[in-house]
C-alpha cells in the first residue's frame, strides 16, 4: 500500500487496520477539499488562529433572564459555482417526435430540496417499468399487472393511465442472448407498439449485454429518429462511441451507467462528451436496495451532486435511479413472521423509502415498479414543491391527539 | 508546531491531538503509544477521557483545549440513565461522506395517560421486545414517549409510574403544561427523561423544571426558526445546557417547511458554526395521526413509515412514532442502520474460501460475493441446509450479487481467479461450481475461463437447502 513508506518514515507503530482507516479518511478529505472553501474561510478568519478560549463559565451564575431574549435568524445560504444541465426527454410533433409532451429534468443550482436556497427548477419524475417478456416479479407487484404481463403496450397504457407514470421504461429483456435472443427488428416492433399505446416520453432499456444492447439501440434509434428516447444504458464495456453517435445522429439522449463510483462516472461521461452534447446525458451511479447497500448508493449520488454544484463539470448531469432494485431486498418480497406484516405492504414501503432516500441525494428520474410507491413519491414531490404552509397551531396538538 | 487553533474536524490531524497529550507513552489507555491514541481520537474511536494522565491537574489546560478542539458541531445530549440511556446528536458533519454520522436516531414509541393499564403495558412490552437481526446486529427500538392527553397531573404521574415499573427504556415526557410536567417528573425523578417541551409561553417554568430535575429539555417552535433560536439563546442563558430542537414536523401541508427547517438548522450548525442551532433535532412522525380523519389506519401508518424515513435521512437525531407494526418500523430501523454505517469502513467480509461442516472431496462448491449482508445471508442458509460444503467468497468490493454483475464487479475472470486462488481444486474431485441465480448470465464465460461446469443456483439463497437436496443428492 502507498502508505507503508510513510508509516516507516514516521517510525511509529500503528495498528494496520487503523492505518487503512486513516488512509481512507485522508482520501475522503482530499476529494472533498473543493467543497469546503466556505468552511475554510470561516475557520481561517482573523482571530481563529488564537488559542481556543476556555469554556465560558457556567451561565447559571448569571442572572436568569426573565423575558425572551430575541435573536435573529439568517438562512444559511451558500453559493454554488456549478449547475446541473437540463436534459429534455421525449419530443412532441413540433419537435420532431410523436409524444404528447416532452419532459425536462435537471437544472438544479442547489442540493436536492434546499428550497430555502433555490427553487427546484424541474420536479423529479417517475418512469414505470414495463418488460417485453415474463420475468420473476414479486407477488406484491405482480398482482397489479397480471392482466398485462404478456402485452407491453397494454402494460405501458396501464402504467400511464392508471398509475400516473410520467414516462415508461420499456425493458427489452428478450433480446438477451441468454434469454430469447430476439432480434433488433423484433425489438423495434415492441417499441412501435408501446409508442402507439402511450404518448409519454420513453426510456428504452437493454438487457445488460453490451454488444446486443448496442445493436438494438442502433436499430431502435434509427427507426424512431427524433423521438428523443433515453437509451438505458451506455456502459463502459460498450462501444461508447457507437452508442453515443447512434443517439446523437437520430436525436436521442443517453443514460450513462456506472457501478457506484464517482470516478468511473466522470470517466464515462468524459468519453461521452467526445461524441454527444452534455445536455444529452443523464447519469446513473447504481441503486442498491434499502438494507442491501443503499447507503453506498445514497452517498455516491450525494457526493456526485455536491461536487457537480461545486463546479465539477463532469458530474453536472441529472441523475437517474433504478429504484426497482429495492425489490432485491428479501424483506421486500419474502414471507416473514406475522409481526413483520404482510409483504403486500412491506414491499411497496421498501421501494418508497428507497426512493425517498435517494430523492434527497439528488435523483431526478426514478425508474419504479409498485403503484403505491410511485404514487407516494409523486405526492411527496408535489407537496414539497407546492409552497403550502403548515398550520403551526394544529401541529402543537400532536401531544393530545387520539390515535 | 505549538500553534493551537480551532480547526474544522477535517483539518484535524493526529499530530494536533498528539501535541496536547502528555506524550508519556504510558499505555494506560490500552494503546501502544500516545500517537496511536491520538490517531484513534481523531477518528473518534476513543474518547480523550481514556487518557488518565490527561485528566490530572497538570494537564487541565490541555484537556480543556482538546475538549474544545474535538467538540462536535451538534452537541451530544444524553437521555435516560443506566445501560439503556441514549445519546443523541454528537454530529460532526452535515453529510455522512464528510466523516461519519454518530449516534443512530433513537426511535421512541408513545403511550398516553388515557390508555388503559393493559394497553400501556402491552405497548411498552412490544417496544422493548422489538428486535431484528441484520448483518450480525440486533436492531431495536429505544425509548417511550409518554403523552398527557388528559392534561391531568395525577393521571400523568400514574402513567409515568406505570411505564417506569415496566421498562428501563429512557422516557420523553410530553406536555406543554408545567404543572402536568412536574407531576410526571416527580414519578421519573433521577431517570433523566427528556422534557417535551419548552415553548414561547412556558419556557421559564420548563427551564426551572429542567434545572431542578437535571433533565434535557426539548424546545418547540413550529415553523419559526427565529423564535426557536431565541428560545435556545434564552434557555442557555437560563442555565439549561442540554437542549433538543423541534421546529415542527408537518406531515402534509408544510412538509416543505419541515424539510427546509431541518436542513437549515443542521447546515447552520455544521457549516456556519451557529452554536445556537448546534443541538440535536427531534422529528415527530406521530403528527400524521393529526390528519387521520376517516382514513383507515394503514394509510396513516404508511405515511408515518415514509415520513420517518425522510426525517432519518434529513438530519433527525430522535424520532417519536406511534405505529408499532413491523412493516412500518422495519424499513426505518434498517435505513437508520444503513445511513449511520461508517462510510470509512466497507461493509464487506474477507474474500476467500469458507468451509461449512466437514466437507470432503465430493462436497458441493458454491460461490458468492463479499458484501457482508450477502455473505451472512448465504452462510446462514448453507448452515440451515446441513450439507457440508465449500463457499468461495469473491471480492466484489463489498457489492451485492446483482449490482456487482451489472457493475462488472463480479465477472467470469474474477470467479475463475477466485477458484484458482482458493485451492479448492485440490480439495474436491469434481469440477462443479454452484453460482448465484442472479449471476446466471456469467455461467458460459465462467465455464470457458475456469474449465468448471457451472450449476446455476437459486436467485435467493433461502432456496439453497432445497436446491442442494435436489441437485446434489449424490
- CATH architecture level-2 label of the largest domain in chain B: Alpha-Beta Barrel
Strand fraction of chain B equals: 15-25%
* Class of secondary structure makeup of chain B: alpha/beta
Number of helical regions of chain B: 16
Class of chain A, according to the CATH hierarchy?
Answer: Alpha Beta
Task: Give the count of helical stretches of chain A.
Answer: 14
Residue windows where pLDDT falls under 50 for at least 5 positions of chain A = 1-57
Strand content of chain A: 5-15%
Give the % helix of chain A: 25-40%
Task: Give the mean pLDDT of chain A.
Answer: 87
Rounded to the nearest angstrom, the radius of gyration of chain A is: 25 Å
Total number of distinct structural domains of chain B: 3
CATH superfamily of the largest domain in chain B: Dihydropteroate synthase-like
The whole-angstrom Rg of chain B is 27 Å
Strand order of the largest sheet of chain A: 8-7-6-5-4-3-10-9
What is the level-2 CATH architecture name of chain A? Alpha-Beta Barrel
Report on the architecture of this protein.
The complex is a heterodimer of chains A (403) and B (474). Chain A has a single domain, classed as TIM Barrel (Alpha-Beta Barrel). Chain A contains 14 helices and ten strands. Chain A has helices at 4-10, 16-32, 37-44, 139-145, 152-161, 184-197, 210-223, 240-249, 262-273, 294-309, 330-333, 343-359, 371-386, 392-395; strands spanning 86-89, 103-106, 125-131, 167-171, 202-205, 230-234, 253-257, 281-284, 319-322, 363-368. In chain A, strands 8-7-6-5-4-3-10-9 form an eight-stranded parallel β-sheet. The model of chain A is unreliable at 1-57 (pLDDT under 50). Chain B is of the alpha/beta class and 474 residues long. Chain B has three domains: 3-70, 3-methyladenine DNA Glycosylase II, Chain A, domain 3 (Orthogonal Bundle); 77-339, Dihydropteroate synthase-like (TIM Barrel), CATH 3.20.20; 352-471, Rossmann fold (3-Layer(aba) Sandwich). Chain B has helices at 14-20, 34-42, 60-70, 117-129, 153-166, 178-187, 203-213, 225-238, 255-271, 297-313, 326-339, 372-385, 401-406, 412-422, 443-450, 464-471; strands spanning 76-79, 86-89, 107-112, 131-134, 137-140, 143-147, 171-174, 194-198, 217-220, 243-246, 282-283, 318-321, 352-356, 365-369, 389-394, 432-435, 453-456. In chain B, the strands form four sheets. An eight-stranded parallel β-sheet of chain B has the order 10-9-8-7-6-3-12-11. In chain B, helix 4 crosses helix 5, helix 6 runs parallel beside helix 7 and helix 12 packs across helix 16. The longest helix of chain B has 17 residues, at 255-271. Residues 1-6 of chain B have low confidence and may be disordered. Classes of the chains: A alpha/beta (403), B alpha/beta (474).
